[in-house]
Amino acid sequence: MAKHAGLVVEGRSGTSVLAIPQDSAGLARATASLATEHGAHHARFEGPLLWSVIAHTGAVDASKPREQVRQTVLVTGSDGYTVILALGEISPDFAGKPVILADHVDGQPLAPEHLRLVVPGERRAGRSVRDVVRISVGIPQPAAR
Questions:
Q1: Which residue from 53, 118, 119, 142 has the least number of CB within 10 angstroms?
Q2: CA atoms of 28 and 130, how far apart (whole Å)
Q3: Contacts of 137 (CB under 8 A, 6+ apart)
Q4: How far is residue 56's CA from residue 4's CA, in Å, rounded to a whole number?
Q5: Which tens digits make up the pLDDT trace of 119-132?
Q6: Exposed, middle or buried: residue 49 (CB in 10 Å: 0-12, 13-18, 19+)?
Q7: Is the pTM of this model over 0.85?
């Protein structure tokens, strides 16, 4: 996939917003280390909270917390790797897990095409996505009966 100046954040309405990393300067930030099946990753990741990014872009309506428990967040990397989080996991009205969209590692900025999703506290880093290009918020469809 080609290099890009930001990432696409898509809400339930289907509207896409190009979120430029520089726009995240005023958002709530966190730091985390990444644990893998090979032991602790010895790098410190820093960036805006995923919740702050999707709320800032309007992909989720923070004023309607009841809708959040049935929504998901699909995060896709440039290599096509995707992971899903429940919106309630990261919503401050529910679990409030400090999942970050890292734009710095060990104090050094990452290029916009190398943003990384970091889910702290996981024993394996299976939901860590490198080179994030798309974040989509939606409601999963129930299986047909």
A1: 142
A2: 21
A3: 9, 10, 11, 12, 54, 59, 60, 71, 72, 73, 74, 87
A4: 20
A5: 998 877 889 999 99
A6: buried
A7: yes
* 102 and 111 Cβ atoms separated by less than 8 Å: no
What's the CATH number for 20-70+77-134?
3.90.420.10
Beta bridge partners of 32: 45
Between CA 11 and CA 105, with CA 110 as vertex, the angle to 5 degrees is 105
Model confidence pLDDT, tens digit, residues 39-72 = 666 788 999 999 999 998 889 988 888 889 999 9
For residue 43, what are its two tokens? 């790098």
Q: Does the CA dihedral 129-134-136-142 come out positive or negative?
A: negative
Amino acid at 18: L
Tokens at 87, concatenated? 């919106």
